[in-house]
Amino acid sequence: MTDRILTDDVVGTFTICGDLTVRRLGFGAMRISGARDSDGVRDRSTARLLIRRVVERGVNFIDTANIYGYGESEEIIAEALHPYPDDLVITTKAGYLPGKIQRGHITLPAKGDPAHIREECEKSLRRLRVDTIDLYQVHAPDPFVPYDETIGAFVELQQAGKIRHIGISNVTAEQLAFAQRHCTVATVQNRYNAGDRASDAVIAACETDRIGFMPWAPILLHSRRVRAVASDVATAHGATLQQVALQWLLHRSPNILPIPGTSDVAHADDNIDSAWVTLIPDELHRIDEAAGG
Known about the structure:
Layout: H1 8-11, E1 13-16, E2 20-23, E3 27-28, H2 44-56, E4 61-63, H3 72-81, E5 89-94, E6 100-102, E7 105-107, H4 114-128, E8 133-138, H5 147-159, E9 163-169, H6 173-180, E10 185-191, H7 200-209, E11 212-216, H8 224-237, H9 241-252, H10 265-273, H11 281-291
Parallel strand pairs: 3-4, 4-5, 5-8, 8-9, 9-10, 10-11
Antiparallel strand pairs: 1-2, 6-7
């Protein structure tokens, strides 16, 4: 394991809504409830060690959600870190129901009605052991509930002091603009990586309005062309493909806050070590070209 500590000057910072300053390489806690011990058995103490390790390495921005591990992710974060360091920002979400397996596929039914949002916020507050959630995200627009009603529930929670800032997720540029008419949007979280650039227009809007952009699936490069180029770059640096993918994101926009996740300590260390991989402009340009950017 490396002992290098992520600092502001290594990875840079972003200030959410002019209020919460975080280092630009965060951690996604979706999978921590699946952490396993040396015998391959799911183990909560191993999960706690993982989340502590991430923070010890200097990460001060953790993303989770009410449905991750059916609430276990939030519980594990609190068990491992509470009382929280002063500079730690934890964001969670509501707006989906836990996944169900249908015909071999996992579905995530959206659930955006205000009563559900309020109920889930209270549960997250208890699991995280906080009075106010730093950043609370609308997990997805619900096609059966007007989006302004869902956002309105978040605004009410903000006015009640339950949440500090509002983020949205899985949105188009048009949905972002709509949300901005109803609240101050602090962050957007969409699927995005060098091989999937469907949210380029959303990132452009985020840059204009100083909104943080949190890419989920940041290291899944499904494009063969991008993988091939990124693999060549990784080999030249003695790095992993995933580390190159994260560095590309950090260079893509100053508003991007990658949140790679894992259930394995060694993998988490590798992701954090991406901060010390230095790519030159030509390498970044080659990846852009392969992605059609």
